[in-house]
Amino acid sequence: MKSIALVLTLLTSFYMNAQIEPKPSVDVRGEGVVTITPDQVTITVRVEHTGNNPKEVKQMNDRTVNEVFQFLKQAGIDSKYARTEYMNLSKNYDYNAKKYNYAANQSVSIQLKDLSKYETIMNGLLETGINRIDGIRFSSSKEAELQSEAQIKAIQNAKQKATEYASVLGQNIGKAVHISEFQNEATPRPMMRSAMVMDSNSESQTMAPGEMEIKVVVNVSFELN
Asked: With contact defined as beta carbons under 8 Å apart, do 177 and 28 qualify?
């Protein structure tokens, strides 16, 4: 009998819980945006050599790469701000010459904490014998702080939207019951504005860091009272 009573109690409890309707809620999307002028830049360069002898090709490439790192050391760039991104030695077939050749390449990225050093470092890298400049990426030393600021703004924006929607209906919002963030949208993106870096020996403009935009997007669900 006790077993039957327990089963009946559980079934009754389950039935009653099933009859409880979920609380009404309002779901909104909030955005937070923070902008700042970048104060750092990462330069990515490449050294490439080709030839018929793999050993010689690799040695030529290594000599140039060594010159790159020696130059950076002399320029006062800390070794932790320069790193090899990849190194490759490949064998390729030349269908016109009917023979194989070899290509060695190595990519190096250099992070500059001071944008005013850009021209000096770039000119020095070219003199070492690099073959390609694969690109530059601007960043800020305050990204973590700005990310937090953007997150707060996104939540505030979501709360404001929810409050406005509820007030039109003569209702109020309660506590937040769910928050989700879109990580892929919280990425700094360069915006071309008026900022620029000038060559220290001339009035020519060679780089425009502009402004960085850090954007955070959140979805928030508030109880609707």
From this structure: no
Q: In what order do the strands lie in the sheet with 40-51?
A: 82-94, 99-112, 40-51, 132-139
pTM as predicted: 0.67
Q: Which two tokens stand for residue 137?
A: 């990426």
- Span 30-69, pLDDT tens digits: 999 999 889 999 999 999 999 999 999 999 999 999 999 9
DSSP states along the chain: -HHHHHHHHHHHHHHHHHHSPPPPEEEEEEEEEEEE---EEEEEEEEEEEES-HHHHHHHHHHHHHHHHHHHHHTT--GGGEEEEEEEEEEEEETTTTEEEEEEEEEEEEEES-GGGHHHHHHHHHHHT--EEEEEEEE-TTHHHHHHHHHHHHHHHHHHHHHHHHHHTT--EEEEEEEEEEGGG---EEE--S--EE-TTSS-EEE---EEEEEEEEEEEEEE-
Beta 25-36 vs 205-207: how paired, if at all?
unpaired
* Residue in the structure block whose two tokens are 């997007």: 217
Query: Which residue carries 């070219």 as its tokens?
Result: 126
Please state, as a whole number, how many other Cβ atoms lie within 10 Å of the Cβ of residue 95. Answer: 7
| Residue type present at position 36 | I
Residue 51 CA to residue 94 CA, distance in Å, equals: 11
